[in-house]
Amino acid sequence: MPASGRLAGRSAIVTGGAQGIGEAIVETFLAEGAEVVFLDRDAVTGRHTERRLSGSRFLECDVTDSGQVTAAVGETLTRLGKIDILVNNAGVAAYFDAATMTERQWDQVFVVDLKAVWLCARAVLPAMRAAGAGSIVNISSIHARMTEAGAFPYAAAKAGVLGLTRSLALDEGPRGIRVNAVSPGYTRTRLVQDYLDRQPDPAAAERAVLDVHPLGRIVSPAEVASVVAFLGSAQASGLTGADVVVDGGLSARFAT
After folding, report:
1. What is the per-residue burial (b if ≥16 Cβ within 10 Å, else e) of 167-200?
2. What family is this protein classified in (predicted)?
3. What is the mean pLDDT of residues 156-165?
C-alpha cells in the first residue's frame, strides 16, 4: 500500500466494486493509499477483480439484504479496524413503461438503487459516530436532475439518492460525518459500450453521443473515481450535502 496519497491511513468500503465505476473507485482508492474492502454479489467477477487489484479485499454481498450488509460491515471492521469512507456505488439501470411496470419490478429497482444506499449507510453509521468522523459518498446520476424518455423509474430512484444524501448530511454533520453525492453522465463502462454496440449503426450512435458533450468525449470510470476520492479525502473537508456532476459538460447545454 502506498505510504502517501489523499487517502493514506483511511479505510474504505465500496459497494458494487467488481466492475465498471466501482472497480475504478477501488483501484483509485488503493492508489491513493487507502485500505479497501469492496462488496459485490457477483462472486466470480469479484474474485477476479480482487486478484487484479492487489491489496483489495472482496466480500460477496447482496446489498439489498440487510443481514448480508450487516455481516459484511462487521467483517470489514474486523479486518480494517475502522471504516472512514463508505461509497454506495451498487445500482441497476432498469427502464420500464409506467403503465405496464409491475409492483414487483418497481420494488426491485428501488431496493437496489435507493433502499440499499440507506441499508449500507445505516450499517456503517454507528462506527462513524463513535469515531466522530466519516465520509459517505453516494453514486447518483445526472438522471436525478435531467432525464430522457424511456428512463422510468431510474430517474426517480436516483433523485431519491440525492434527497437521502441531503438528509443524511444535515443529520450527521454535527457528528463530523460528511455525506455527498456524485452524479455521472455517460461513462465509458462496459454497459454503455454494449448499448452503443447494439444500435443499428454503432459508429453513428457514438458520434451522436460525443457531439452533445462540450468536451467532445464521454468521461472514463477513472475520472469519476477521482472525484469520489476527493470527496472521501480531507481536501473536501468543507463539503457536505453536495452533488458533484461528472458528465463532460452534458448537463450545461440546451438540447439542440
Report:
1. ebbeebeeeebbbbbbbbbbbbbeebeeebeeee
2. Belongs to the short-chain dehydrogenases/reductases (SDR) family.
3. 98
Least Cα distance to 28 among 3, 63, 56, 48 occurs for 56
**Amino acid (1-letter code) at residue 1:** M
Alpha-helical segments (H) within 88-247: 103-110, 116-131, 154-172, 190-197, 202-211, 221-232
CATH 3.40.50.720 in the chain: give the residue spans: 11-184+221-243
Q: Express each pLDDT in 198-237 by its tens digit.
A: 999 999 999 999 999 999 999 999 999 999 999 999 999 9
CATH code reported for the domain at 11-184+221-243: 3.40.50.720
| Angle of helix 116-131 versus helix 66-80 axis, rounded to 10 | 30
16 has pLDDT over 50: yes
Taking the C-alpha atoms of residue 185 and residue 251, their distance in angstroms, rounded to an integer, is 8
Strands 134-139 and 85-88: parallel
Instruction: Please give the Cα distance from 248 to 216 (Å, whole number).
Output: 8
Distance CA 205, CA 155 (A): 22
Condensed to tens digits (0 to 9), the pLDDT of residues 62-71 reads 999 999 999 9
Q: Which residues are catalytic?
A: 154
For residues 108 and 94, give the distance between their C-alpha atoms in angstroms, rounded to a whole number: 9
* Nearest of 53, 121, 132 to residue 89 by alpha carbon: 121
Mean of the pLDDT values across residues 173-186?
A: 98
Q: In the block, which residue shows the cell 444506499?
A: 117
Using DSSP's 3-state secondary structure scheme, residue 62 falls into coil
Nearest alpha-carbon partner for 76 in 153, 24, 160, 15: 15
Burial class (CB in 10 A: 0-12, 13-18, 19+), 204: exposed
| Biggest CA-to-CA distance, the chain | 55
